[in-house]
Design goal:
Blueprint (H helix, E strand, L loop, with lengths): L2 H13 L4 H8 L3 H13 L3 E6 L2 E9 L1 H22 L4 H26 L4
Helix pairs in contact: 2-3
């Protein structure tokens, strides 16, 4: 799976259903590229398109249960990888990481806000 595909699934998991144009902007790709990507992910059963109840002209891309399970599995694999790597650090290095956590959390929040763009 491409990084853009994985990032798009993670965005849908974090933010809920989105328009293709919104997803393209968040992921930094063109609308035609996102449309093609969504088509592939639909074929794999990871996402589906649904109508927007508030605007019948709009189609939203939604994560399926299979897609949500994929995102959870990838996140868990990342957690396990970090646990293994952190286990190899010295006590001082672990303390330095713990001290840096507030700044890292803030960076993640800023990045998330930047990627999500304006709320609809």
């Amino acid at each position: 799976m491409s990084l853009t595909s994985a990032a798009t699934l993670a965005t849908l998991d974090r933010t809920g259903p989105r328009r293709i144009t919104d997803l393209a902007a968040v992921e930094g790709v063109t609308q035609p590229a996102m449309t093609a990507l969504v088509r592939v992910m639909e074929g794999s059963g990871l996402v589906e398109r649904r109508g927007d109840a508030s605007d019948k002209r709009v189609t939203l891309v939604c994560l399926t249960e299979t897609g949500a399970s994929y995102v959870r599995t990838r996140r868990q694999a990342g957690v396990h990888a970090f646990e293994r790597l952190i286990g190899d650090l010295t006590g001082d290095e672990v303390e330095a990481l713990v001290a840096a956590l507030p700044a890292l959390k803030h960076l993640a929040e800023l990045e998330s806000q930047d990627r999500e763009g304006p709320k609809q």
